[in-house]
């Protein structure tokens, strides 16, 4: 796109914007520092649109300041009587045609990109053995957490999406309760998760997330549609891995098949978990999607507790003791019996030990 | 008050009764103005609380639930209950005067429209004291609003239903008034631009409010009577709400912004001492904006998943609106070009409006770019955009018009000095608040969040934004202070306060008598008062009829009673889902009051009364001294 | 205005628009109908998108439910009432008050007949289990047709009020516009019904 812009002589303006805008925001969350084909094309559109629009604002402002400076009554005298002009057809035509041309320039890439981003035909493509050629993730948004199902691998995770880099990742998105919206700003634009239908789109992740934000190593994802008191806290994180690491992660996830917590366990944490939590939270990645609570198989590998709190044992304990305090309106509050401090601590230990990466 | 007929002192009770029963468009304008201001202040305060909460990351000044109530009530109140009545106030005051009419076509309905609006608005605000305000955003998307516990959403649905009915009635009234009540010679293409924009805006109300009425009704029966429109487990579909809401919601923006354009189109020629440039293209652009305004609602739903074709069509249609809007901006600038610009408070608002509104407009075009909107939608960029349009376009127009039309309303002038202070503090505050929000959105901050974590790069801009909001609040306080001080000032008792008035409303001497024109004026061209002035006519108008009897409508308390009936019935409906045994009787009693008042209205003859020529001369002598309105 | 005595010769050509108030009413009703059209358009759109939609295993579909003969009789009632309303306006123009009252009365009777059939129809549906809360389809059906029914009731109350109120007063330029406006409103209700008959019943049965 940048090449094509040169002939519109907007390039200097464009370059200036690219420099100014790219200094803005954090790499792991800013749309101004995109790291995927979708986000980059959207960023280019932003540059094009901003350039045209800034041009308009500048022209109008200059014209207007000039007029304002030139025709002050204090300069012209109290009694000056301006000529009462009706209008001018030539001028009318000029300022009708020029905006139309500017809008046409903008509308062509708009239409092309609209169709391009909506093209999910590759989702259904299969190779000779009938396996899908592209990776598809089923996203279900629920009150203040996200479930990610990988149908072709038969695994489920929550709160942290794991994806391979440099390939189109397709998404089927749906909401389980109220409408949410799925947004990873640094990777590409959002799409709503509706309650009655499945939306589909794709994203591309150019870069491995490992080095982001001083080793935190994740992209930030957001819910962008007001969904209740804790809308602001409905964050998720995305790890992008190279294909090899991704395959390894999938294998590790698949290996958790059958894993469960037992009430008879000698580990107090596991036993308490099995009694109080297992009804909603699975600890094996090979479980059916649509659980009441987030799948906790990878809890120890995660970046945040409940999507928002720093990943420490203290925070796990605090969360279990009073989830309402951290996420008002969440559905976990009062779903289990009151636990003693000792039990809470044991459950926290147990949870922190759940991992597929270590 | 300017419109009180005779200067005899009245008791407080009599004045209140007079305002409760009045059908005079000027008094209703005052009522609209003050109730609009009240709700503007409430909604502004809500905004201030939200900005204080967002000033720092992880702040716990306001809880999550309360924040959602505030953001919902802020948006709902500002659009339905502040901007709309304030503009209606100006429309009521100015439009009949501009077209040379003694009142609107249906004075009774005018009063009914006001009381429905006011009681609907009051009903909505009672939610704060009765178990919680609505909390699903002003858009109240169906899945969340069905899920929302408590009665908040019920207050939203019923309150807006009542006040929306009032708005629709007023809209019909304005349309008929402008079609049938124009003075002789006031052809359509001689109507001042504010009258034109009021006509188009009322037409938009006419077509846009019924879908809202239907949407709200479906929500009402879903929540209170177990219907299944939006419950997908029963075959319902929440996207229907989104469509109905935005088929209303997008024109609503133009319903508000077109009269604002009209106000500036009145202000700019007066202070440039020059005829409005390109009048006919301005009229054409207004109509075109109104028309296109109905073709673009789905641009609010680009991320809903309507498919590429729908998105592409609506993207291009939306961009098209920029063309007539651009025409308007250039016409304003060319009006000033070659003029003689006098800088006054209204004019400085007009001058501040042009660049601010253009900035808001161009970000609108950016969002019309559907694929780019996937990034911008529901982020702070949107918040910045629509506040640039609404504050930069509509609120500046309202503030400018307070100063501009204050002499017509109250026969007093607002302080210029305080006005400049207000302008600068408010204007700088406004840009501080909202300019940085563009970048917050681009940096990944979703809208409608009650808090945000540190370390996402948003702290500084949020802080700046909150400082700006505080400045805006100070500006508004100064504005209200200015209004209060003006009441203490000397009455003006003059005609054409600004010296360069062009349309008929300036040809009248203030205080304006309740019958407006003692003789119907004859309009001899565009800008009739300007024409008469140029020809040295001391009375400011040529008359179309000799001095004779004037027919005036009777006051009536029935509009208030009808509105109270609906207000009562709404409480019954509200508590119906709780299974309260009194809910159905209350509904029946409330509706009964309304129906009864309607039957009384239709069975009783209301022919109005005649004011005789001698009485008119007497009133004029009392208002203006011997010689009357000369 | 009330006191002026007219003869058929002095009675104006367009009595409904002879006074300023009358003209306002005449313009006003048309403007109101514009907005009512949008109201019904919204309801129609909602109905069409929810037609035959319901919970899994829903019992009723429009094919099984609607019976064209009944709907056809209702249509005839309403269309005839439009015709009688035209007669009333014909007499209004000719300053024949008795004719106005008579034909407006016949219009009311036909409207009542329509309403009775509609109430029977609704009662029947509810009786066989197709209640308001049964499915999205039932909610949409009752809301669309019910809103039309509500309009019919308002029109009937309006015309009855006019007949009763003016019975002893005769025709004058104050109440002539009222009859005229009520008649326009009644025609509008009929037109809406034609659309309901087509979209709901005809398309419902034919699929």
UniProtKB/TrEMBL annotation, chain A:
<keyword id="KW-0349">Heme</keyword>
<feature type="transmembrane region" description="Helical">
    <location>
        <begin position="45"/>
        <end position="69"/>
    </location>
</feature>
<dbReference type="GO" id="GO:0004129">
    <property type="term" value="F:cytochrome-c oxidase activity"/>
</dbReference>
<feature type="domain" description="Cytochrome oxidase subunit II copper A binding">
    <location>
        <begin position="132"/>
        <end position="252"/>
    </location>
</feature>
<keyword id="KW-0408">Iron</keyword>
<dbReference type="InterPro" id="IPR036909">
    <property type="entry name" value="Cyt_c-like_dom_sf"/>
</dbReference>
<feature type="domain" description="Cytochrome c">
    <location>
        <begin position="264"/>
        <end position="355"/>
    </location>
</feature>
<feature type="transmembrane region" description="Helical">
    <location>
        <begin position="90"/>
        <end position="112"/>
    </location>
</feature>
<keyword id="KW-0479">Metal-binding</keyword>
<dbReference type="Pfam" id="PF02790">
    <property type="entry name" value="COX2_TM"/>
</dbReference>
<dbReference type="Pfam" id="PF00034">
    <property type="entry name" value="Cytochrom_C"/>
</dbReference>
<feature type="domain" description="Cytochrome oxidase subunit II transmembrane region profile">
    <location>
        <begin position="23"/>
        <end position="121"/>
    </location>
</feature>
<keyword id="KW-0249">Electron transport</keyword>
<keyword id="KW-0812">Transmembrane</keyword>
<dbReference type="GO" id="GO:0016491">
    <property type="term" value="F:oxidoreductase activity"/>
</dbReference>
From TrEMBL, chain B:
<feature type="transmembrane region" description="Helical">
    <location>
        <begin position="193"/>
        <end position="220"/>
    </location>
</feature>
<dbReference type="GO" id="GO:0015990">
    <property type="term" value="P:electron transport coupled proton transport"/>
</dbReference>
<feature type="transmembrane region" description="Helical">
    <location>
        <begin position="112"/>
        <end position="133"/>
    </location>
</feature>
<comment type="pathway">
    <text>Energy metabolism; oxidative phosphorylation.</text>
</comment>
<dbReference type="InterPro" id="IPR000883">
    <property type="entry name" value="Cyt_C_Oxase_1"/>
</dbReference>
<feature type="transmembrane region" description="Helical">
    <location>
        <begin position="29"/>
        <end position="50"/>
    </location>
</feature>
<dbReference type="InterPro" id="IPR023616">
    <property type="entry name" value="Cyt_c_oxase-like_su1_dom"/>
</dbReference>
<keyword id="KW-0349">Heme</keyword>
<feature type="transmembrane region" description="Helical">
    <location>
        <begin position="346"/>
        <end position="366"/>
    </location>
</feature>
<keyword id="KW-0679">Respiratory chain</keyword>
<keyword id="KW-0813">Transport</keyword>
<keyword id="KW-0479">Metal-binding</keyword>
<keyword id="KW-0812">Transmembrane</keyword>
<keyword id="KW-0472">Membrane</keyword>
<feature type="domain" description="Cytochrome oxidase subunit I profile">
    <location>
        <begin position="11"/>
        <end position="524"/>
    </location>
</feature>
From TrEMBL, chain C:
<dbReference type="InterPro" id="IPR033946">
    <property type="entry name" value="Ubiquinol_oxase_su3_dom"/>
</dbReference>
<dbReference type="InterPro" id="IPR000298">
    <property type="entry name" value="Cyt_c_oxidase-like_su3"/>
</dbReference>
<dbReference type="GO" id="GO:0005886">
    <property type="term" value="C:plasma membrane"/>
</dbReference>
<keyword id="KW-1133">Transmembrane helix</keyword>
<dbReference type="GO" id="GO:0019646">
    <property type="term" value="P:aerobic electron transport chain"/>
</dbReference>
<dbReference type="GO" id="GO:0004129">
    <property type="term" value="F:cytochrome-c oxidase activity"/>
</dbReference>
<dbReference type="InterPro" id="IPR035973">
    <property type="entry name" value="Cyt_c_oxidase_su3-like_sf"/>
</dbReference>
<protein>
    <submittedName>
        <fullName>Cytochrome c oxidase subunit 3</fullName>
    </submittedName>
</protein>
<feature type="domain" description="Heme-copper oxidase subunit III family profile">
    <location>
        <begin position="27"/>
        <end position="205"/>
    </location>
</feature>
<keyword id="KW-1003">Cell membrane</keyword>
<dbReference type="InterPro" id="IPR024791">
    <property type="entry name" value="Cyt_c/ubiquinol_Oxase_su3"/>
</dbReference>
<feature type="transmembrane region" description="Helical">
    <location>
        <begin position="184"/>
        <end position="204"/>
    </location>
</feature>
<feature type="transmembrane region" description="Helical">
    <location>
        <begin position="140"/>
        <end position="164"/>
    </location>
</feature>
<comment type="similarity">
    <text>Belongs to the cytochrome c oxidase subunit 3 family.</text>
</comment>
<feature type="transmembrane region" description="Helical">
    <location>
        <begin position="102"/>
        <end position="120"/>
    </location>
</feature>
């Amino acid at each position: 796109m940048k090449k094509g812009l040169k002939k519109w002589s907007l390039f200097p303006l464009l370059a200036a914007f690219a420099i100014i805008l790219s200094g803005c925001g954090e790499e792991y969350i800013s749309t101004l520092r995109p790291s995927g084909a979708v986000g980059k094309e959207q960023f280019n559109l932003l540059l094009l649109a901003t350039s045209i629009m800034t041009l308009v604002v500048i022209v109008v402002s200059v014209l207007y300041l000039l007029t304002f400076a030139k025709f002050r009554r204090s300069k012209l005298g109290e009694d000056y009587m301006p000529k009462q002009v009706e209008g001018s057809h030539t001028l009318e035509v000029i300022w009708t045609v020029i905006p139309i041309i500017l809008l046409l320039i903008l509308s062509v890439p708009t239409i092309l990109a609209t169709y391009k981003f909506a093209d999910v035909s590759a989702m259904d493509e299969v190779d000779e053995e009938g396996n899908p050629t592209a990776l598809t993730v089923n996203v279900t948004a629920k009150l203040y957490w996200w479930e990610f199902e990988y149908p072709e691998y038969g695994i489920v995770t929550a709160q942290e999406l794991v994806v391979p880099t440099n390939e189109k990742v397709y998404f089927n998105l749906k909401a389980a309760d109220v409408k949410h919206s799925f947004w990873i700003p640094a990777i590409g634009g959002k799409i709503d998760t509706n309650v009655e239908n499945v939306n589909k789109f794709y994203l591309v992740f150019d870069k491995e997330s490992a080095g982001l934000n001083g080793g935190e190593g994740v992209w930030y994802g957001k819910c962008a549609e007001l969904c209740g008191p804790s809308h602001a806290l409905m964050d998720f994180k995305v790890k992008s891995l190279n294909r090899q690491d991704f395959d390894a992660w999938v294998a590790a996830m698949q290996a958790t098949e059958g894993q469960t917590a037992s009430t008879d366990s000698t580990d107090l944490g596991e036993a308490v978990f099995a009694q109080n939590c297992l009804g909603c939270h699975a600890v094996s990645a090979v479980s059916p999607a649509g659980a009441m609570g987030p799948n906790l198989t990878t809890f120890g590998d995660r970046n945040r507790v409940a999507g928002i709190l720093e990943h420490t044992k203290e925070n796990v304990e605090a969360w279990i003791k009073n989830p309402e305090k951290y996420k008002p309106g969440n559905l976990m509050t009062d779903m289990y019996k009151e636990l003693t401090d000792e039990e809470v601590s044991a459950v926290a230990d147990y949870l922190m030990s759940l991992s597929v990466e270590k | 008050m300017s419109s009180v007929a005779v200067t005899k002192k009245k008791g407080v009770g009599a004045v209140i009764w007079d305002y409760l029963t009045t059908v005079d468009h000027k008094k209703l304008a005052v009522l609209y103005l003050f109730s609009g201001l009240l709700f503007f202040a409430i909604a502004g305060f809500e905004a201030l609380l939200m900005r204080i909460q967002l000033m720092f990351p992880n702040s716990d000044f306001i809880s999550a639930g309360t924040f959602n109530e505030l953001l919902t009530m802020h948006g709902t109140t500002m659009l339905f209950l502040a901007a709309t009545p304030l503009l209606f106030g100006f429309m009521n005051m100015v439009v009949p005067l501009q077209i040379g009419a003694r009142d609107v076509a249906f004075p009774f309905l005018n009063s009914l429209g006001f009381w429905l609006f006011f009681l609907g608005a009051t009903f909505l605000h009672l939610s704060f004291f009765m178990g919680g305000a609505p909390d699903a955003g002003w858009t109240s998307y169906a899945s969340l609003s069905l899920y929302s516990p408590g009665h908040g959403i019920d207050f939203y649905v019923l309150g807006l239903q009542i006040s929306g009915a009032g708005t629709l009635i007023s809209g019909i009234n304005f349309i008929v008034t402008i079609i049938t009540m124009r003075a002789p010679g006031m052809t359509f293409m001689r109507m001042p631009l504010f009258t034109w924009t009021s006509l188009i805006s009322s037409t938009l109300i006419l077509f846009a409010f019924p879908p809202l009425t239907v949407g709200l009704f479906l929500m009402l029966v879903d929540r209170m009577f177990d219907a299944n429109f939006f419950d997908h487990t029963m075959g319902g579909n929440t996207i229907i709400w989104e469509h109905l809401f935005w088929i209303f919601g997008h024109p609503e923006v133009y319903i508000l912004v077109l009269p604002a354009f009209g106000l500036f189109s009145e202000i700019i020629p007066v202070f440039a001492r020059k005829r409005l440039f390109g009048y006919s293209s301005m009229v054409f652009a207004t109509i075109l904006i109104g028309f296109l305004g109905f073709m673009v609602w789905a641009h609010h739903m680009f991320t809903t998943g309507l498919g590429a074709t729908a998105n592409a069509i609506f993207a291009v249609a939306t961009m098209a609106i920029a063309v007539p809007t651009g025409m308007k901006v250039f016409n304003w600038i060319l009006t000033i070009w070659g003029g003689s610009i006098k800088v006054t408070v209204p004019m400085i608002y007009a001058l501040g409006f042009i660049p601010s509104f253009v900035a808001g407009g161009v970000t609108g075009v950016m969002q019309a770019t559907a694929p780019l909107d996937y990034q911008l939608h529901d982020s702070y960029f949107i918040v910045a955009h629509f506040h640039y349009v609404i504050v930069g376009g509509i609120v500046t127009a309202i503030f400018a018009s307070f100063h501009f039309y204050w002499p017509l309303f109250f026969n007093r002038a607002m302080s210029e000095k305080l006005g400049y202070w207000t302008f600068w503090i408010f204007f700088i505050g406004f840009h501080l608040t909202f300019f940085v929000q563009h970048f917050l959105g681009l940096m990944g901050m979703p809208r409608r969040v009650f808090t945000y974590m540190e370390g996402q790069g948003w702290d500084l801009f949020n802080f700046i934004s909150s400082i700006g909001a505080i400045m805006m609040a100070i500006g508004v306080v100064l504005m209200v202070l200015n209004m209060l001080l003006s009441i203490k000032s000397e009455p003006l008792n003059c005609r054409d306060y600004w010296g360069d008035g062009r349309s008929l409303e300036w040809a009248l001497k203030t205080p304006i008598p309740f019958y407006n024109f003692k003789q119907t004026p004859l309009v001899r061209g565009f800008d009739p008062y300007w024409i008469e002035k140029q020809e040295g006519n001391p009375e400011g108008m040529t008359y179309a009829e000799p001095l004779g009897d004037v027919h005036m409508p009777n006051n009536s308390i029935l509009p208030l009673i009808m509105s109270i009936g609906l207000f009562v019935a709404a409480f019954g409906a509200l508590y119906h889902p709780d299974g309260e045994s009194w809910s159905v009787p209350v509904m029946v009693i409330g509706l009964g009051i309304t129906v009864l008042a309607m039957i009384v209205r239709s069975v009783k003859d209301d022919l109005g009364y005649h004011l005789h020529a001698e009485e008119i001369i007497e009133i004029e002598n009392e208002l203006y001294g011997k010689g009357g309105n000369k | 205005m009330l006191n002026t005595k007219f003869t058929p010769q002095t009675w104006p050509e367009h009595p409904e628009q002879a006074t300023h108030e009358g003209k306002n009413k005449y313009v006003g009703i048309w403007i109101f109908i514009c907005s009512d059209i949008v109201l019904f358009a919204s309801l129609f759109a909602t109905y069409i998108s929810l037609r035959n939609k319901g919970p899994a295993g829903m019992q009723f579909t429009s094919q099984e439910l609607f019976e064209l003969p009944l709907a056809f009789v209702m249509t005839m009632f309403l269309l005839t009432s439009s015709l009688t309303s035209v007669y009333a306006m014909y007499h209004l123009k000719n300053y024949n008050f008795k004719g106005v009252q008579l034909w407006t009365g016949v219009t009311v009777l036909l409207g009542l007949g329509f309403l009775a059939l509609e109430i029977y129809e609704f009662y029947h549906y509810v009786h066989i289990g197709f209640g308001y809360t049964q499915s999205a389809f039932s909610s949409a059906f009752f809301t669309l047709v019910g809103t039309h029914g509500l309009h019919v009731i308002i029109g009937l109350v309006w015309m009855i009020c006019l007949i009763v109120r003016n019975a002893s007063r005769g025709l004058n330029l104050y109440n002539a516009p009222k009859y005229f406006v009520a008649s326009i409103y009644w025609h509008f209700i009929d037109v809406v019904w034609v659309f309901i008959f087509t979209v709901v019943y005809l398309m419902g049965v034919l699929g």
